[in-house]
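Notes on consecutive records. When two proteins share a document, each keeps its own sequence and its own token line. Never mix them. Below: protein one.
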Amino acid sequence: MKPEPKSFFLTPEIESYLLAHTTPVDDVQQWLIDETWSRVARQAGMQISPEQGTFMTLLTRLLNVRRAVEVGTFTGYSALCIARGLAEGGRLTCCDISEEWTSIGRTAWERAGVADRIDLRIAPAIETLRSLPIDEPIDMVFLDADKTGYLNYYEELLPRLRTNGVILVDNTLWSGRVFDESNDEEDTLALREFNDMVAADVRVESTILTLGDGLTLIRKR
């Protein structure tokens, strides 16, 4: 089945035009998209959109990223996109708690020839982040996990991020629910609090991109 546009403000027609004018996915990426919808259809919407993946590969290359961290790997599409953009010798540390979902990603990483660049750690993300050395600066981070954990992950990662390093945070528009004041669901409240905190944080500068379900781009000053 073909998924609905990830961006809630895109019509299927605009999405089709957008994808037609974006570097297309390759055979491995398409296999991973199809496999995710086949094996975990109920959660498949958690996978980032193809255009977001392309953006993340481009940004990784532009920043010459050598050390990256991902919190929330799911079936591995975003990790594949980041790993492909890493500078020579670069490494991506992935945090997740599901062997089942990430096993799909492992297959794709092997097929794409990037498995040797990815260090997947199956454990609560906060434990993994606290174990990362403070004296080995991170170039780029992608947050796409439990929304109630975003603030804690951010505070663990920001001190480890190099100056001019970047944090990408997914789902920050939350299909528009973040600005619906009548919505008091736990994840919505957590994202609203996170967005407010980042906007006021003098340690960084940031913007929310209308990409996917809202992607916040944060630069450490």
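Protein two starts on the next line and is unrelated to protein one.
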Amino acid sequence: MPLIAVLPGDGIGPEVMEASLPVVSAAAAKAGLKLEFEHALVGGAAYDAKGHPLPEDTSALCDRAAAIYFGAVGGPKYDKIPDPNLRPERGALLPLRKRYTLYANVRPAVVYKGLEKRSAIKPDIITGMDMLVVRELVGGAYFGKKELKETSAYDVIEYDAEQIERVLRFAFRAALERKKHLTLVHKANVLQTSILWKKVWDKVRAEYPKVTCDDCYVDAFAMYLISRPASYDVVVTENMMGDILTDEAAQVTGSIGLIASASLGAKTTEWGVFGLYEPAHGSAPDIAGKGIANPLATILSGAMMLRYSFGAEKAAQRIEAAVRKVLSKGLRTRDLAGAKGRALTTTEMGKAVLKAL
């Protein structure tokens, strides 16, 4: 029986996770896959209880698991921890990515039917947006050398050709399974690392003649993401650019509460690719405990887990179809309903998806 390490984390993490687990379990069971879920502390909750955001027993659980199902970590309370390496994001998420070499972050950005008006962008511009962003996750400025002095600081952006090539190949394979269109986002007119990305890109794309390729400077792409988002299919980029652009893409769709993600690497188990699956939203401590958080991003992350880590494509598609169904019925959580609309609680939305499933 495959084991899943469940790390709810902080803020709304435990709430959205609780609403999501019955959906993932039911979809898996229908596909003949029985999953074992084991919970552990991570982030601020782990720091409060054990003095470290990623305790040894949590790491040991993840080592035994076939996948990690992650909630959210952090909050203003933990920004005051003196040692930055013990703050939840830097002390838990980054070490997990590094520990398992989770080099490819995969984040869909879809405009769901009926939610076009939730975006700040005109509906006729965003209608049809269905983008997959592949972000390199274990290189670049976040993992480079860094130093903070009294009046100066530096963060080194560093990549080697092997790091770039493996994530590009992942993106090309993803494009082959979709509309066969791949866009590289870079800053090769300024950054030496982007020049290397372009060099490796030119080598790899020659091996995928069926994929239509183009590339774009990151500042221009940031504009095009607002003016013509439906023209993109799969987008691949480096770590920090991807971090920024995926949040922009989430806002274009109307709510970050709908954005799922998978972080994948080279490690495999007998069931599939080992990965970490989490909603793109943060811990949102301002609404924690109020029962109004949107669990759909976590539920959709669970669908990605079934797809990539267990090869259960039909189960993943059933969850995604159930989410589309509840949204088409007009069911909304507070972030989607607006100030005056009727909103379901976190638990109610989870049950609605389960019923649709």
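For the record: The longest helix spans residues 13-30.
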